[in-house]
Design brief:
This protein is an alpha/beta fold. 41% of the residues lie in helices and 16% in strands. β2, α2 and β3 form a beta-alpha-beta unit. The structure holds NADP nicotinamide-adenine-dinucleotide phosphate.
Length: 283
């Protein structure tokens, strides 16, 4: 068996017409502000991709790139002014932040209604309760990808490896709300192989190159590899050993070109959702 590759670029493109139709109904273009602090090269690439996609959709944008030594108080003031700016519907602070800045305090300063990354505790709490919220883009992108690919989740034995607030934890909540039976594994899990081997849907978000051997994958499983790891030779690989996993799985996300493009697509959707809630449609 060779798994069907779930092409995130293509799925993300297929969602664009519906999003454009929603944007056309707004009273003004959705506004997105992206704050980047310091010179992290990966962040520069990610932010560049976000701006590029937002520009193609006609968003109003503010790109704020601040020096690494920017005091936290300055960052908090900036967020307060963006919270008050009526033309801005979404505020994103690109992580990681420099060590002298308390990331939790910065994220908590964002108006939850403009929190298009879905990292604010209010949005996490609303998601946990199954209430409407802004949902973190990566797990939301995974869910949307499975939906578009026609892979139903009801009753599936799902295993999520990783429990970060950005990926693993919200992913588990979304899968449970989609009626999968969910196990969350992490660095302290005993016998990870046994859990992985049971998974009909395996989502891996740990950030360690090829940490999950392909031979562990249950035959016929759907494998979602969220990890993005750069090897010493410059190649990008996921958290799952892709070659052997592809031989056993029924569907698999490539790295790159799988979950990454869906994350950016969901950031655009979250910004439009926020704009709809804040602006209301054109009368
Ligand atoms: P993170 O905050 O570092 O969390 C990693 C999680 O993996 C933790 O819960 C940790 O367990 C667990 N873990 C670490 N080593 C493990 C092991 N050997 N076995 C089992 N569990 C292990 O990472 P993250 O922010 O969730 O990101 C994870 C990966 O996804 C990274 O490669 C990141 O670059 C990638 N990512 C990709 C996208 C995208 O758009 N494609 C978006 C976001 C993140 P403990 O909790 O016990 O420490």
């Amino acid at each position: 068996m060779s798994a069907r590759l779930l092409d995130g670029r293509e799925i993300a493109r297929s969602l664009a017409p519906a999003l454009r139709a929603r944007i056309a109904k707004l009273t003004r273009p959705p506004g997105l502000a992206v704050i980047r602090v310091g010179e992290d090269p990966a962040s520069e690439v990610y932010v560049g991709k976000k701006h590029e996609r937002a520009a193609r959709l006609g968003f109003h944008q503010q790109s704020l790139h601040l020096p690494a030594e920017t005091p936290e108080a300055h960052l908090l003031q900036l967020i307060a002014s963006l919270n008050d700016d009526d033309l801005i519907d979404g505020i994103l602070v690109q992580l990681p932040l420099p060590p002298h800045v308390d990331a939790a305090r910065v994220l908590a300063a964002i108006d939850p209604a403009k929190d298009v990354d879905g990292f604010h505790v209010v949005n996490s709490g609303r998601l946990a309760r199954g209430l409407p919220s802004l949902v973190p883009c990566t797990p939301l992108g995974v869910l949307r990808m499975l939906e578009v690919a026609g892979l139903p989740l009801r009753g599936l034995e799902a295993v999520v490896v990783g429990r970060s607030n950005i990926v693993g934890r919200p992913m588990a909540m979304l899968l449970e709300q989609a009626d999968a039976t969910v196990t969350v594994a992490h660095s302290r899990t005993r016998d990870l192989q046994a859990h992985v081997g049971r998974a009909e849907l395996l989502v891996v978000a740990i950030g360690r190159a090829e940490a999950i051997p392909g031979a562990w994958v249950r035959p016929g499983a759907i494998v979602i590899d969220v990890g993005v790891n750069r090897l010493a030779d410059g190649r990008l690989v996921g958290d799952v050993e892709a070659g052997p996993a592809q031989e056993r799985a029924t569907a698999l996300t490539p790295v790159p070109g799988g979950v990454g493009p869906m994350t950016i697509a969901m950031l655009m959707e979250n910004t439009v959702t926020s704009a709809e809630r804040r602006q209301g449609p054109r009368s």
